[in-house]
Design a protein that fits this description.
mainly alpha; Arc Repressor Mutant, subunit A; two-stranded antiparallel ribbon; 3% strand
Length: 124
């Protein structure tokens, strides 16, 4: 799991949010399977050289949102997901990325037609 997450302190987003969003992407994308154990908060914090409270905050929010589950005395695991929840999250993640892409294209003066052609070309 840790090898798939990239924390960038220079990013405008707080580190806990980066951890949270990237973990959701791994779950939605199938890289983290239902029931898979996450490393401990301490191990994640050491790996990224961040405060354990930052990691704990990200994990707590993921538990509250239903992406992860915690049981006393056991490691944190990926919670079972409903198809609807996964589809809604995929849409949300893509909407955010699409909004950023559209904003960048607009700033560069790229037309909608040219942007769609670029996407089709890159899709291959």
């Amino acid at each position: 799991m840790l090898e798939f997450i990239n924390v960038n302190p220079n990013n405008g987003d707080p580190i806990y949010k980066q951890l949270q969003e990237q973990t959701v992407r791994l779950i939605v994308g199938g890289q983290l399977a239902v029931g898979e154990e996450l490393p401990s908060v301490r191990k994640i914090a050491e790996h990224f050289a961040v405060n354990p409270m930052t990691v704990s905050r990200a994990i707590s929010q993921l538990v509250d949102q239903g992406w992860l589950e915690r049981r006393r005395g056991q490691p944190t695991r990926v919670a079972p997901q409903t198809t609807m929840q996964t589809n809604e999250q995929q849409d949300s993640l893509l909407f955010n990325a699409a909004d950023q892409l559209i904003q960048q294209a607009t700033q560069l003066g790229v037309s909608q037609t040219a942007l769609l052609q670029l996407i089709k070309k890159r899709w291959k």
